């Protein structure tokens, strides 16, 4: 069952706490979607780490599924980081203390360190989709482990320090404006890929809150229409994990 943080201000939202999450700083902004995405990133990297160790190199059909799932994961992570780099950190830099600005610069630098790790993993998945290459599998184990550890450190850093800065310096209205300006509008096809992926494994109580507060009910409808198909594909993808 998800935890909700206690609040120190009567008008602040109760922050979502999901499995694996390190912190949920209090403040005026409801960061529920941020934490749902962080949960999905951690979940997938844990699964990829087990899958690349245990999937036989000759299982090319499974490697193709793993490669497709990696593309979805990397696409979502890239978009997540792009919104932060283009919208969130610049909005904070002019308001923060020198120590806070240093934290924001560290966030951006960590994004730059993660990107080549992701591409190296993508190359490994493509190789194993085409060839039963045991050396490529062994190399991919190392690359995925490095990507997992790097991203886990980054997410913990963001949850403990960067989000605390966001909560101190921005209002909910400013946060919403940044999201509206920098987050791309999803097509129906994109939403059908991303919604079941982001929702998978989120405790039901938390998921109901996210759907309820997202407004419009569209995400809930998409989830209901796509969740079973996604779960079947997920099971095939990580059958050796």
Automatic annotation (TrEMBL):
Q: Read off the InterPro entries from this record.
A: Hemerythrin-like
Domain of life, per UniProt, equals Bacteria
- Any idea where the Hemerythrin-like domain is? 33-162
Q: Which Pfam families match?
A: Hemerythrin (PF01814)
Q: What name does UniProt use for this protein?
A: Hemerythrin-like domain-containing protein
